[in-house]
Amino acid sequence: MKTSSTILAIVLLVIGLVIGISIGYALHSPAQNTVTQISQPSSTVTSVSTVTQTSGMMGMEMQSKTMIIKSPLTSVNENVTITTFSNETTTWYQYTFYNYGNCLLPVWTMVTYYPSNLPSDPIGSPNWTVYAFSQSHESYLNISFPAVKWAYEQINGLPLNAPFPAYQALGNKSSAVTLTQMVGDAVGVSYYDGIVYVPADSNTIYAINAYTGKLVWMATTANAVMSNPLVINTSKGPIVIASVGDAGFSASHGLFAVVTGNFANVVRGYSYGAVYAFNATNGMLLWVHFDRGNVMPTPAYIDGLVIYGDGSGHIVALNAMTGQVLWRTYVGVSAFDSMSSTNYYVFPNGTAIAIIGFTLALPPYGELVAVNVANGHIVWNFTLPQGFTPFNTGMGDVSPAVDQQNGIVVQSTIVNFVKTNKTIGFAVFALNATDGKLIWIKQVGRGHVPPAFKGGVPLIYHGVVYVGSPVTNTIYAINESNGNILWEAKIPNVQGPPGGAGGGRANPVIVDGYLIEPAGSYVDVYNATNGMLVKSYYVGGRFGIVNAVVVGNTVFLDNSYSWTFAIPLSDLI
Asked: What is the pTM of this model?
């Protein structure tokens, strides 16, 4: 009798799961009448097994095929299950990738694609080749795009008016940072041809119709996506490149490496670090490259290469079309890149250098490194002058800004920790991009050590450096040529350290004389000339290192509560 009951329970459980999955797909399928079929690469299929299932639930049908296909970019075999779902109004697809060539994927890449949600006639836009769109970090695309308003809740979205999860145990400061690093969206979105590409710490990348706010595709990865997805138009169509990683240290690569003096074994990232390439239109996996240590920072696309710093102290160049390593440069014992995204400078003769910040576990504790893009040879490296000592992750956190016209590189870092009162300085410096020589350095303020990301990503705009500081909870405008402070403004509605996490981590964006900077639960707008606060626009949740991306007449944002937003620019300025 007990056995019969057990069998009956198992049967009911299976039936329940089938019904639940069917209802879930039906509820999340797009309610549109247009059906666009995806063309499958049938000529490259080498083996197929087919299972066809028809469900009577809400008129939905499901068909599955498992096959080996060749990547359109690399011709490498991929084992994939393609499941087609359809109802009375539309059709959508799910692709499950199990391997890329001989590399088994530690976490299957599952892509869900809704072709009927593609933008119908998008305005063209430039490639997204670097963190925050441009070398200067001005994330403003001055193209024709209408004012739209929508909010997209990701699969693990939290109520926007809710307190930080686990704040009772962690406190407001640590709970905010934990949410940003482990669950929500740490950095801002990317835009290309009518689609907003959203990086999520939930091991997911989203592609959302920028006009309607509807999901076009989503793909899972082996770790958190804490980078701006790059979007590059190639001879075989646009591709999305996303790097993944995490902020942790294993015991052997962190504490014990330092205690035992094995500094060459210092590696940031306790899980998988990788770079993925997807089809920008439908999310199909094109290639993947795994690396040692985290690949949290955003790579840069330069001269056909994808270049990034990793958690093991290397700068790596991949062929953007194949994912193959072209060169790999070690920058020094105990070095690791935390969140310093790659930027670049091009010499008048056309030679390009990639520029990345690194943290060192040994003195001098931080450096900015420039390498020749063609061969990976180190062109220059910069360490702070006497009187300025980086602290904690410091120079390995912040993405440097580059003024291509004037040949200037700008970065911020925390410096000069005082143990007795546990305070830290916030410094900003400018270098000659050609040789890495210091132009100026200024400690603009002191405060308590902020949690997690320690600096502010600078923006260079018309001879002025705009940068926020989580140490002082302040926005600064600084003369680019000499480092003199032009104005400073306290960030409202955000508690700074030691009680809170502070704001000002993201690069500001300037539009029509207004400076836009998300912080806390708000998008703050300042007069770019004098720093006067114009408006604090409430959104809810929390913004981490998220910058505003302005496309025509709309501002796009994501946040730590796993939401993506489109806000009419006219609501802010």
From this structure: 0.90
- Per-residue pLDDT of 354-396, as tens digits, reads 999 999 999 999 999 999 999 999 999 999 999 999 999 999 9
Pick the CATH number of 140-571 from 3.40.50.800, 3.50.50.60, 2.30.30.40, 2.130.10.10: 2.130.10.10
- The two tokens of residue 208 are 């959302």
Q: Where are the alpha helices (DSSP H) in 198-304?
A: 255-259
What is the domain partition of the chain in residue ranges?
140-571
CB of 116 closer than 8 Å to CB of 132: no
What's the CA gap between 27 and 552, in Å, rounded?
A: 33
- Looking up tokens 């870092």 gives 413
Q: Which of 388, 448, 444, 393 is nearest to 421 (CA)?
A: 448
Q: Which residues contact 185 (CB under 8 A, 6 or more apart)?
A: 154, 198, 199, 200, 201, 544, 546, 558, 559, 560, 562, 564
The size of the chain, in residues, is 573
What are the backbone dihedrals phi and psi of residue 117, each rounded to the nearest 5 degrees, phi first? -95, 0
Q: How far apart are CA 175 and CA 454, in angstroms?
A: 16
One-letter identity of residue 365: Y
